[in-house]
Amino acid sequence: MPLATRRDVGQLLIGSLPGVSIPPELRSIAREFDLGGVILFSRNIEAPEQVSEMAAEAEALGRDMPAWVSVDQEGGRVARLKDPFTVWPPMATLGRAGSEDLAERFGRALAAELAAVGVTLDYAPVLDIHTNPSNPVIGDRALADTASEVSRLGRVLVRALQASGIAACGKHFPGHGDTSTDSHVELPLVEHPPDRLRAVEFEPFRAAIAEQVAFIMTAHVLVPSLDEQRPATLSPAIVEGVLRRELGFEGVILSDDLEMKAVSARSPVPAAAVEAIQAGCDAVLVCGGSVDLQAETLEALVRAVESGAITAARLDDAWRRLKRAKERFLGGGRRSARERHRTLKTVLGRDEHRAVADEMAAFL
Q: For strand 121-122 and strand 167-173, is the pairing parallel, antiparallel, or unpaired?
């Protein structure tokens, strides 16, 4: 396969790191494949300066286009960046407050701290609706328990993050709010008919699409009324049919982590990556930190392109969407880690940001 095509395939992967630095093996893969990006977890984080330096090195893993430096920074239970970053309450507090002004100030403060250390993509906001009190994985990560409130505040958060230069990612389509199992462990079931899904679960995603959200992440859930056999991430009917065609989303569709048991118990990660791209995802997440598994996933994607299992048109479509998003958010000049270091102490955990967190915490 021509080198240019292998680099195009590399854009389809947002990979992960095993520790607090970029291993030589991942640098080697990046030289060949031009990686799409990396996602940071708590295991990758020691201190703000170290995150900033690693982010600059990670961004450079993309040779033709900068690599995304991404993170799950929602607040509450899902926050990889701890003190001295501002410690944010869960997003449910925004729903209880009901204030668009508070949501906007939170989004801008969150974006400022992410940008300060070189993060360019945040997997937020959660657009699931908390309609099932026994849901073990969403809970207070959701903004509210009604479609209208999640839609209203979700739009504000998308706007605030992206106006501040951070690409936002709405998750988890077609909706993970009314499930009773955790997709990290098993495949959850969503039993609603299409009319209910369109009236409730899809509404926050419609709102985010109207706000030109950069990314939407798929859910590893089974929705028999839309596809009786495949989890949403691997379903052409859901990804291409509903999200792309019916809802008209023109941004990047990203899979949730393919190492989660809801998918990996069904298919090995490399095979699932091929299925996800075939279904209409433009990129996939592989989050466990195994460089070998990421290399195997890329090679599986290469073989699928060579055999025609992933068509040239599908690869080109995904690549163009990824390129457009990178031009939108990574096209300008970015500060070096050394330049960012000088401002870290004035941005992270600043009084203004802690005041926003305290205001949110009043609604815990």
A: parallel
